[in-house]
Specification:
This protein is α/β, with parallel strands linked by helices and about 240 residues long. Helix content is about 35%, strand content about 35%. The protein folds into two domains: about 1-125, Response regulator (Rossmann fold); about 130-235, OB fold (Dihydrolipoamide Acetyltransferase, E2P). It is built from seven helices and 15 strands. A hairpin with a 2-residue loop joins strand 11 and strand 12 (about 190). The model has no long low-confidence stretch (mean pLDDT about 90).
């Protein structure tokens, strides 16, 4: 698993590196860690990473610019934003970050979030088979934007195209519940929380590249949807 630490403060970067070293043994995973003490050097490397810890506030090239660049190289990169200023959270949501850490990083939260990220990394590379009559398709679960009911069938919208598939909506609801980044926004809509950039009590806005997609949020599902979103973002209500 290739991991980037991008922070202009050496001591902060070293703290994250040492925490990863400990976690590597606990999780029994090999981490290939690259440390960049600035945004420009991270971008210049042109490397693809599976996971990144990025400080937002750095001289020259800021962390959000680095995160955007990493996502063009690998759309499934798992990004942790690290900063002392919470006002950057909205901008971080716009690029679908995985977690938001305030400095200094709390060790227990770091370890739990990393454990969840590793599970997500494994699921990002997991595929499911969609079947409709004689047609079969294999897709990454992380590429699903949302699921809905259409003409008594289940429609699955991905980053590439739409599919009408076998299986009742209840079946797909149960299946998607195995992934912590899916939540029900309305009776007939299940959305990928990684694609959510904004929501209120009536609608959620999802992002697919430069395209923005709006899906309904119902009053009955708003509270559990909000709770699921905050838990996914690693925040408390």
């Amino acid at each position: 698993m290739k991991i980037l630490i991008c922070d202009d403060d050496y001591s902060d970067a070293e703290c994250i590196r040492k925490a990863l070293e400990i976690s590597s043994g606990v999780l029994r995973m090999s981490f290939d860690v690259t440390v960049c003490l600035g945004g420009a050097s991270a971008i210049k490397s042109g490397e693809k990473f599976d996971l990144a810890f990025i400080d937002i506030e750095m001289p020259g090239t800021d962390g959000l610019t680095v995160a955007r660049r990493l996502k063009t190289l690998n759309p499934n990169v798992i990004v942790f934003i690290v900063t002392s200023y919470r006002e950057y959270l909205d901008k971080a949501m716009d690029i679908n970050v995985f977690r938001y850490f305030s400095k200094p990083i709390e060790n227990s939260r770091f370890q739990e979030s990393l454990k969840t990220a590793v599970k997500l990394y494994r699921r990002n590379t997991e595929k499911i088979v969609l079947e409709y009559f004689d047609e079969c398709y294999s897709i990454f679960t992380s590429d699903i934007i949302y699921l809905s009911i259409e003409k008594r069938k289940t429609k699955i919208v991905t980053t590439e195209r739409e599919y009408l598939v076998r299986g009742k909506f209840a079946y797909w609801k149960k299946r998607m519940s195995a992934y912590e980044y899916f939540a029900q926004a309305q009776y007939s809509y299940i959305v990928n929380l990684r694609k959510v950039i904004a929501f209120d009590k009536t609608k959620a806005t999802l992002k697919n590249g430069r395209e923005k997609i709006v899906v309904p949020v119902s009053r009955a599902y708003y509270t559990p949807f909000k709770k699921a979103f905050y838990e996914y973002m690693g925040e408390s209500l």
